[in-house]
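Thread: quick sanity check before group meeting

JM: Hey all, I'm pulling together slides for Thursday and realized we never actually wrote out the predicted structure for the chain we discussed last week. Dropping the sequence here so it's in one place. If anyone has concerns about the input, flag it before I start.
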Amino acid sequence: MSSAKNGRNHAGESALHRELKRHYSGASGEQEVYRHGYVIDVVRPDALVEIQTRNFAAIKQKLFALTAREPVLLVHPIARIKWLLRQDGRGAPYRRRKSPRRGRWEECFRELIRFPQLMAHPNLTLELALVEIEELRCDDGRGSWRRRGVSIQGRRLLRILEQRRLHGPGDFASLLPDDLPAPFTVRQLAQTAQLPRRLAGQMAYCLREMGALQFVGKARKAYQYQRVAGA
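JM (edit): ok, ran it. Output follows.
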C-alpha cells in the first residue's frame, strides 16, 4: 500500500533521503510500504529499512514498535566529504567549495543519545554510511544569523564512500580507540580519539546505556569507565 493512500505527504522529502532510499531498495526492496501501522522507507526480504539523516527522536516510537515485530536496519548517513554550492538570491550558482569538516563514525552518538538502550535490541542493526554530498545554499536572507542569512536549500548524495554495520554492544564498543587507557575518563576518551569533549561524553553515555561500558570509580571528580567483559 503506498504512502499516498495512507495520508503521508512526502512532498518535503529531501533529495539525500530519496537517493539513499533508492540505493537501499536494490533489486528486491519496495519503497513506502504501510506495515504495522507505519509507512516504512524500504521493505526488503531480510529487514525493514528506515533511513534517518538526523533527528532520531522523531522515529523513537516507530523503532520500538517495529523492532518488537521484525528485524530493522536503521541507516544513518554521515558526511565525510561535503561540497557547498552557493547560489545568489535569484537561484544562480556562483561558487562551489569543499567544506573543511570531515565526518566520522563516532558522530552517530550525537543522535543515539535519544534511545541508546534500544540499540542493544537483537532486532535492530545500525548501518552508518560515510557519504560525499553536495549542500545547496542560497543568499536569500532567510537563513540563520550564524550563516549570515544564507539558507540551506537541500542536500544531495554524490556517492557512498564506506559503510559499517553495528549490531549489539560489542560492535559499538569497537568504535573506541585501541590505545585508550583502562579505566578511562571522558576527557581521556576525547584526547585519545581526538573528539570534541561533548561528543566523547555522548559516546561514553550511549555505550554505558547499551551495556558496553560500566562505571568503575572516580578520578578526582571525573567518572571512570571500563569495557564490560564480552562487549
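AS: nice. DSSP finds six helices and nine strands in the chain. Residues 4-167 form one domain.
JM: adding both to the slides.
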